[in-house]
Amino acid sequence: MTTTSVPYRAVLRCIQGCAGEHSLLEPIYRCPACGDLLEVTHDLDALRDRSAGSWMRLFDERYKRTTWPYGSSVWGKQEWVCPEVDADSIVSMDEGGTNLFWAERFGQELGVGDLWVKLCGNSHTGSFKDLGMTVLVSLVRQMMRRGVAIRAVACASTGDTSASLAAYAAAGGIPAIVILPRGKVSTAQLVQPLSNGATVLALDTDFDGCMAIVKRLSTEEGIYLANSMNSVRLEGQKTVGIEIVQQFDWEVPDVIIIPGGNLGNVSALGAGFDMMEALGVTARRPRIVVAQAAAANPLYRAYRNGWHFEPIKAASTQASAIRIGNPVSIDKAIRTLRRYDGIVEQATEAELADASARADRTGMYNCPHTGVALAVLTKLRGRGDIAGSDRVVVISTANGLKFTDFKLDYHRASVAELQPRLANAPLELPNDYDAVRRAVARATAH
Questions:
Q1: CATH no. for residue 344?
Q2: Nearest CA-CA partner of 229 in 272, 263, 203, 204
Q3: Are 441 and 427 in contact (CB under 8 A)?
Q4: What's the pLDDT at 6?
Q5: Residue 160 and residue 138: Cα distance in Å, rounded?
Q6: Residue 134 domain-assigned?
Q7: Whole-number Å distance between alpha carbons of 160 and 295
Q8: Are 300 and 292 in contact, with CB atoms under 8 Å apart?
Q9: Cα(380)–Cα(288) distance, integer angstroms
Q10: Count of structural domains, the chain
Q11: Which pLDDT tens digit goes with each residue over 240-263?
Q12: Strand pairing partners for 116?
């Protein structure tokens, strides 16, 4: 049984327009003619057999249902994502459908009355990577069932990709290999792939070094690449934009701010909006803002230099998942930003830490990468690039609980180069009622 009754079709094509196409079920990541990246292209004419209103009704009817596999907001949009995969090959853990949080208090502080935070970290492994990994692992499972020789699925990672790959591969019964920069991922991120039984290789290098190794490894027979240079994963990640619009009753926000590291998420976000526009679901585009840590800011430098990109050596940053100096999806990201009136801005270590803590004081619990996006929001609002009347969505890429050390270090003021403005250390008191009463009185005096 397949999940779709109409034979829709998607293929891989070169982003530079080289002739030829490739099946999504083929282990290929770059164009054989020019060596550039591939992208998934859908048969839009076939998809126009439904009206825009019909697609919206269908997606709303499926949204978060128990009918397999529509509990997943990714697979509830299967015709727009991966129409070829069979229902019994799908490996899903209820991806998507995450909270679009109205950040009322934080928005009031900034003078943005319509501020929302898309909490992608409220997912199975705690990050937005689950949206793409369900598609990639499901395709691998179908390939293996059709006789394609795949021994393992491999990725380089700064933490979240490895956690997601390990979990989905374990659920699908597929061996996983993850390559991490030793000592540069959080404890929670490291323990996730270990717990799910992946082979974890910690290398004495940074992410870019790990990526160079895994790209070579993927040329070995039977090793399938799970990083975002594999375009099939981005098909799941593009649904975050579609879902945001769906959650706003199919209205497009004015601005979307997204943290940027390897930059696959940027092009995926644009791809979702491109598809909605092409099929008549939307008639306008949001402005896309990419937020980078100042210590790892190659896209920001390109933006400030007429989009001329040069790789850099990324320095240490609390936003470890976006510590990437040579992003694989740079060309796709620049192309997207040019179409979406894009802005790229950066945040220093102090700015991202303080922004995260400030937002936490209004009820959130942010990872450092979301802190980067919130710091950039604060800057753009301060200089008028974002209006107080704009509907703004910040994409929170991971759950703050994966970065406990980041939080503790801030509130303990244990990072030498930072002066945490909102540190909130516990008061250590004797077992004495009067001492407690005095402390409570001081805390509630204002």
A1: 3.40.50.1100
A2: 263
A3: no
A4: 52
A5: 19
A6: no
A7: 19
A8: yes
A9: 12
A10: 1
A11: 999 999 999 999 999 999 999 999
A12: 102, 393
Q: Answer whether residue 156 is part of any domain.
A: no
Between CA 119 and CA 379 the distance in angstroms is: 21
C-alpha span between 377 and 394 (Å, rounded) = 8
Assigned domain for 130 exists: no
Dist CA 225 CA 209 (whole Å): 16
Residue given tokens 């909102």 in the structure block? 422
pLDDT digits (tens, 9 = 90+) for 312-369: 999 999 999 999 999 989 999 999 999 999 999 999 999 999 999 999 999 999 999 9
Distance CA(401)–CA(367), nearest Å, equals: 8
| Gap between the Cα atoms of 264 and 306, Å rounded | 21
pLDDT in tens, 146-185: 999 999 999 998 889 999 999 999 999 999 999 999 988 8
Query: Both ends of the chain: CA-CA distance in Å?
Result: 64
Closest CA to 267 of 327, 211, 207, 334: 334
Please list, residue by residue across 186-208, b when 16 or more beta carbons sit within 10 angstroms of its beta carbon and e when fewer do: bebbbebbeebebebbeeebbbb
Residue partners of 23: CB distance under 8 A and separation at least 6: 11, 12, 84
Model confidence pLDDT, tens digit, residues 294-315: 999 999 999 999 999 999 999 9
Q: What is the pTM of this model?
A: 0.94
Q: What's the domain range around 355?
A: 100-125+234-411
Check if the beta carbon of residue 131 is closer than 8 Å to that of residue 237.
Answer: yes
Structural domain contains residue 201:
no
Q: Which residues lie below 8 Å from residue 158, measured CB to CB, with a gap of 6+?
A: 180, 181, 184, 185, 189, 207, 261, 320, 321, 322, 323, 324
